[in-house]
User: Fold IclR family transcriptional regulator from Cupriavidus pauculus.
Amino acid sequence: MDAGDARRRARGRPANAQSSRSLERGIEILRAFRPGSEVLGNGELAERTGLARSTVSRLTQSLVDMGFLQYDAALRAYRLGVPVLSLAHAMRSGSTVLQLAAPRMRDLAQAASLNVGLAMADRDEMVYLESIRHGRKASLRSVVAGQRVPMALTSLGRAWLAVAPEADYAARMADFAARSAHWPALRREIETAVAHVRRHGWCAASWQPEVVAIATPLALEHYPVHVLNVSVSTRAPIGDVTRELAPRLMRLAAEIGDAVQAAQAGPP
Assistant:
């Protein structure tokens, strides 16, 4: 045991605590890259992650060595490496839920001229696993797999909150409260949506102009919670839209749930 291990044990931490922190910080650096951020320098990465520049410099070099970042000498900045995309592909192609849901989502989207999406939670955002766009009206908003949307504002996020463990729900609400300039009104909207999910199975939101979306959580055995939504671009009253969309959404959710359960049971 080296001196560093001895010091960590003396402070009550396991010997590999430093390695764990390095891994966590390296992942935070990768998380700093978002759409519109092709290249980021050490200073920008330090600002986005809250890490010291010296720490960022050390970790980016390790990530370059492993291929997860590429260094552009001319720009003195980094871009994401190919392995990141490979991991995303492995995640999507290996998802049984997505493989079973996607064709059923596509059938509904085409038959009813709807946009249909499937998402999961990541911290205070929802990330689309799939988005099939067949809305009746052209929309300025394009949604693709991997895209993030805010949990607090969307039907996807509010549906997830309705079934989240109590500790996770409390943590997310505390995050929203700390960042929202209009928290009392937003809290009422979230609580109303959560109550609606618990009573009716779905909730609605219209956080984008002339777009109405409704969502329902898929609580599938052996899987994290997925959230299914349908949306349309419309000027119709939200009540009229939900009366039409809610039965379609809930039937689709039931079909996906049955398909996943059958796949888990295996051949008869």
About this structure: Residues 1-15 have pLDDT under 50 and may be disordered. The radius of gyration is 21 Å. The first strand starts at residue 69 and ends at 72. The domain at 95-265 is CATH 3.30.450.40 (Beta-Lactamase).
